[in-house]
Amino acid sequence: MSMKDYPYPMQARNEALCPFTRDTQLSGFLTLPKSLLCWGLSPGALLVYGLLLDRGKLSQRSGWTDKQGWVYVIFPVRELALALGKGVTTIKRWLRELEERELIFRTVPFQGEAGWIFLRVPRCGVEGEREKALGLPPPAPAVRDPWEERAWAPREGGLDPTDDVGRMLAALERSGGQFSTAPSGSGPGSSPGTPGPIPDGGGAGFGP
């Protein structure tokens, strides 16, 4: 689309923009692995992959997985075409391009329902995998806010007597109080151990 074909006047476009400063916090942007820029994919296929990966992060947070823990995405072709302002035939061509490079797998797990799309990501873009491939030590774990943890869940390495939660649990132990030390349940799906996704079962019949 050329500048003259842009549907909004120049003034409206400028008002919708703000300067990128050192305090700017970005939101609503697509994630795209930089290594894919060297794969020779068409720009359209890269954009579709970015949209699918963005929807995949939502599925990940919502727990939409198969039996092996593979996250699936529900993003109908017509919705992709509408989001990108392209025809269905063009979107299908870009999806086939991603399939040929084994970046996505598509299946229809239940007859008459929307298809599921499974994604694969470059190993170098996964936290810890790059260090493992280069023989480097794993990255330091992120510092967590202690108040994000469940007060009754034991911490790794025992209780911290200087922490409020640790003092509370230590006091309960000394008083003979009963509290649960069972670890919280794992998320939906088991750990991925097979080379491909297993679409039957796991999750509901509707996407996020």
UniProtKB/TrEMBL annotation:
Residues 183-193 have a biased composition (Low complexity). Residues 40-98 form the Replication initiator A N-terminal domain. InterPro entries: RepA_N. Residues 153-208 are annotated as: Disordered. Residues 199-208 have a biased composition (Gly residues). Signal peptide: none annotated. This is Replication initiator A N-terminal domain-containing protein. It comes from Evtepia gabavorous. The lineage of its organism: Bacteria, Bacillati, Bacillota, Clostridia, Eubacteriales.
